Amino acid sequence: MGRGTMKGGVGVKLEGIGVPTLLVDEGKVRRNISAMAEKAERCGVRFRPHFKTHQSREIGQWFREVGVRAITVSSLTMARYFADDGWDDITVAFPVNLREVDLINDLASRIHLNLLAVHPETVRSLEAGLRAPVDLLVKVDSGYHRTGVDPDDTPTLERFAEELAACRRVRFRGILTHAGHSYKARSLDRILAVHRQSLDAMARAKDVLASRYPDLEVSVGDTPTCSVADDFPGVDEIRPGAFVFYDLMQFRIGACRLEEVAMVAVCPVVARHPDRGEVVIYGGAVHLSKDAVEGPDGRPVHGWVTELDEAGWKTPTGCCSVSAVSQEHGIVRACPEHLERMRVGDLVAVVPVHCCLTANLIGAYRTLDGRVISRL
Amino acid sequence: MGRGTMKGGVGVKLEGIGVPTLLVDEGKVRRNISAMAEKAERCGVRFRPHFKTHQSREIGQWFREVGVRAITVSSLTMARYFADDGWDDITVAFPVNLREVDLINDLASRIHLNLLAVHPETVRSLEAGLRAPVDLLVKVDSGYHRTGVDPDDTPTLERFAEELAACRRVRFRGILTHAGHSYKARSLDRILAVHRQSLDAMARAKDVLASRYPDLEVSVGDTPTCSVADDFPGVDEIRPGAFVFYDLMQFRIGACRLEEVAMVAVCPVVARHPDRGEVVIYGGAVHLSKDAVEGPDGRPVHGWVTELDEAGWKTPTGCCSVSAVSQEHGIVRACPEHLERMRVGDLVAVVPVHCCLTANLIGAYRTLDGRVISRL
After folding, report:
1. Fewer Cβ close by (within 10 Å): the C or N end of chain B?
2. Domains of chain A and CATH, by start
3. Can you give the residue ranges of the D-serine dehydratase-like domain (chains A, B) (predicted)?
């Protein structure tokens, strides 16, 4: 597992870090992966993890090692990246974009490709453009109200059934939802309420289609409900993604413990302003993103700041946080004790608000033992 | 200028656009560059544009064509990218990061490199690590309160003067500020008030240092004040950056007209929800960023949406805006007339809130005639 130096007590290797860098604790990532894989097995559902969070072939390999064979991505570009690494059962969990029909055909000729539709009309256009078979999942809006078919819109679901019955290349595989409204939860009870309500919506949608398509699959997946729920009645597969790293948002929601957060952004301190209780780090909106959670004073917080130590980083307590970001600057509001210890030239760790966006911005990972892991 | 096809009336070339794409109107960009260059000349100040916005060698060339020879960047990585393209007078307008001393030495041996310090102690560390000469600017906090020396903190300014007098490789070039509080303005009067207050602060700081360093330069620069002000008393150079493209934020501040916005994100429509007045576009937080301006109802707006036309894109009116973004999805709240016309598979244009962040995320430009322009 490449952690020999950690076990030997040599500690985290930070040599050569001069710019904002994603530090990944491979042990924590592998534990997050194993825990979710075991839960899926225990609950009798397929584990089709969302790879949009890490977007890395090497981290994908860690999923292979616990038996994962089917994955989710959020763009055709990502699907190609992973197909080129041997993944051959990929769901693109984004409404099918017919402007990329050439890439769809390329992928469909090589792998088992699962696409998503929100509108029955799209099925006909897709069928007309395809040169190889694909499976199709109808996106159902289980309460998030981003996109998808209302589960109680029986006429639209029936039009889907009709359109799909007429297709030769598009096979009707199932219904899919993303209960993204779980991100508004701030307690286990609220997450579980979203979970139950979402599964109930999926059951209603499936009922409409069951007479013509008795074997339709039900696919759900968002990190909060998949992290918290222990029962997935009526579900065939789960597709969580952010659990691989977790982050401050997931902690706030109640989906993880801070000790499970497996990735931080390591940033150099470049200025100190003790008079106003702040330090400035090289780490801004182009590294952390502008995503925010609400701080105790109601103002946005763009990450929690903590110290690096021999084992990686200390569990943050929230006493130091990123209170503002411009393009390259981050402003850290620090408690007096930490402020005193943060000197210009030091490195600090930032637990990001939203791991998917921070990982996308910084673009490569470094393990605790100093190995670089690339991503798309 | 590569716009022959436009003049010929053939119109914007959108063929092959399948994913979120930055569309740049070269004519508008060149007009924005010329206007700022002419203003600098008229006002008797050096024009040292900030290249962090476009980060493109080709667009840098358009600046060369109006006589620009000195530039600003916000990281040493960016400095190297432009130094490798022949730029030989570069200011890194970010507190000097001593963790990158090897890159500093590499650049200092090749070009005229100007660095920034916030703390007198940093000057000594920098001097100790240097193998080639650099110029140094002291960062002054003229009211933004991100970082910099208080202009009325005479002891610190005098310590800078002493430290710099003892240096062999670090030459004291001047004082620099970024009046980023201009971004809170929402009227010309407020922008001009920030401008006057900022220049006054710089004059006070310069006074402290003038007896020992009579030739110190004064460098200022933020797009709102540089766009609006017509007089820069006591200033030697201006460093605006975002004016090259402008954006919705700059329009809201009062720094530009919407007709001057020179870059949009072109995004495919992937779903429609007429019942709630919304369409879904392929264009989310990993394309537009999560930056926002406040909408009329107090809720965040992540961009204004408009139609593409033969000349590029129509000037938006605000009747259609991006009301939410997740990783790849954007939700557009649309007026009934535009909603009716936006069909799945169409392309729409999004005027971004913050051009620097959107350009950083999408990562390459396409001109109206379909040419691709790369960036760092």
Report:
1. N
2. 4-22+262-374 (2.40.37.20), 26-243 (3.20.20.10)
3. 262-369
